Amino acid sequence: MSLDDAARILRASYAALPSPADMDALIKDSQNAEARRYYDPLEDERLREVYASYLGMRVAIWQMIHALRPQYLSYQKGAMNGREIQAFGIAFCGAEIIVRTGEYLIDLARERDIVWQKLDEAEKRYGLARKSFTRLYRQLTSAFRMHAFYQARDYFDAHQDDILAALTENGLGEIAEILTTLNLPTASRGDHLRRYRRFLNFSLRRRGMSTGRKTMFALFEATGSDIAELKIPWIKRTGAPKRVTPAVVDALKAKLQPGDVFITRHDDAMSNLFLPGFWPHGALFIGTADQRQRLGIEDVSDGFQHSGDQTINILEAKKDGVLLRPIEETLQVDAFVVLRPKLPDTDITQAITKGLSHAGKLYDFIFDFGTADRMVCTEVVYRAYHGVGPIAFELSTKAGRKCLSAEDFLNQAISRGWFDPVMIYGVPEDKLLGGSLPKSLLRQSFEATF
Q1: Is the distance from CB of 364 to CB of 290 less than 8 angstroms?
Q2: Mean pLDDT across the chain
Q3: 276-304 burial string, b = 16+ CB within 10 Å, else e?
Q4: Is residue 235 part of a domain?
Q5: Are residues 263 and 201 in the same domain?
Q6: 191/264 same-domain check
Q7: Taking the model in full, what pTM does it have?
Q8: Which pLDDT band, with edges at 50, 70 and 90, does 219 fall under?
Q9: Residue 382, helix vs strand vs coil
């Protein structure tokens, strides 16, 4: 992962942090809930929305920290070059965001059992499994698990001026500003020990109220993680390759047309826990350079290119932002379906041009379709096609916000006759299938309405 991509993730994550107004509202809600001894539905949704947003942001940041790990590990030996110092600063900034925001939630719950109990409830709508908050608390209050964070924090405190200067001098000044804002007097080891003791006291109180069932959701160690911990356990063996192979991608390329939409799935991605349904992700095929020229689409700048010198033919929002990507990157997945718009070339040109106008924007960890400065995957497709020809998608409320999930897109696009599913792979077997099969196989894979 490049430093610029990592910085994009941090900028989007920082923008998604709970604001003081958010926290004030949650505190007031917790006081009202404690007084009446339960959360009302609106209070419940506000609390879960902040918590689920934090967990999703936490996944993305840990993946970024892990990807940068080879570039900054030499700090433990005390000597780093300029680029390694920058990588360390970005990774430490991510760790600070995770720990700081986690501490906000811990402080909210530590005085009121009702908050803790609510956050430990399973809630399918938000991808929350039972006892997830207890696991989070244990990780953020354990001196053993926080040891690596303490080490990194001590290094930052000792070399703060050099780290901030290295970031500022190399176009990463915004990360330096975030670090300066976050790096308030840090919690001591004693503070974490006191938090851990409170965790033990609460755990003992709860023991009589719970059967202690195992949770499917495994939060990461606060000290870092290897790549296996970024997957849902037991779904696939560690190191297993993606089911979509390079041969499948090569066979697919000649069959694609500009404007096609990919809906994809990873069998074991932890992000599946935060995005609804079997099919969670979408991307827009903008065509090859020759196809774009034929449609009269202006030359695509490589200013937002993500993956080296590979051929760009996809517009896709992932945690590093809305970027132009090669299809080989987008299809590093286990299953996909291709939908083709039933529109004339003039409308296809309009849709792709609209989509490309959003290239370079940050990822939206809040999943709010009401704003256009940051976007999630399906929002790129939504903003490209909504209002083109007869297409008019309807948003629905999920996690308290208006959005269009990938499966909502599938249902509306197909049932209303705007798109046809033309190819499918990975459902139910690893074969690239076309003709009449994609629609029937797709229908069987999720709660379809077409």
Answers
A1: no
A2: 80
A3: bbbbbbbbbbbbbeebbeebebeebeeeb
A4: no
A5: no
A6: no
A7: 0.69
A8: very low
A9: helix
Look up residue 255 and give its amino acid: K
At 2-29, the pLDDT tens digits run: 888 888 888 888 887 777 788 888 889 9
Tokens of 311: 């051929």
Q: How many CA atoms lie within 13 A of 420 on its CB side?
A: 10
50 and 130 in contact (C-beta within 8 Å)? no
268-281: pLDDT as tens digits? 654 544 455 799 99
Model confidence at 117: pLDDT above 90: no
Strands 321-325 and 314-318: antiparallel
| 103 and 27 within one domain | yes
Q: Do residues 265 and 405 share a domain?
A: yes
CB contact at 8 A, 399 and 126:
yes
> Peptide bond preceding 341: is omega within 30 degrees of 0, i.e. cis?
no
Which DSSP category does 128 fall into? B
**Same domain flag for 298 and 201:** no
pLDDT at 61: 87
Question: H-type helices in 173-288, by residue range?
Answer: 173-182, 189-207, 246-253
| pLDDT for 212 | 28
pLDDT at 389 (0 to 100): 96
Q: Residues 312-321: pLDDT tens digits?
A: 899 999 988 9
Identify which has the larger pLDDT, 157 or 254.
254
pLDDT surpassing 70 at residue 416? yes
Domain span holding position 265: 246-445
Rounded Cα distance between 126 and 400, Å, is 10
- C-beta of residue 343 within 8 angstroms of C-beta of residue 351: yes
Q: Name the nearest CA neighbour of 34 among 116, 133, 112.
A: 112
Which pLDDT score is estimated for 305? 64
The CATH number that applies at residue 334 is 3.90.1720.10
CA distance 156 to 96: 11
Residue 224 sits in the same domain as residue 362: no
| The predicted structure's pLDDT at residue 230 | 42
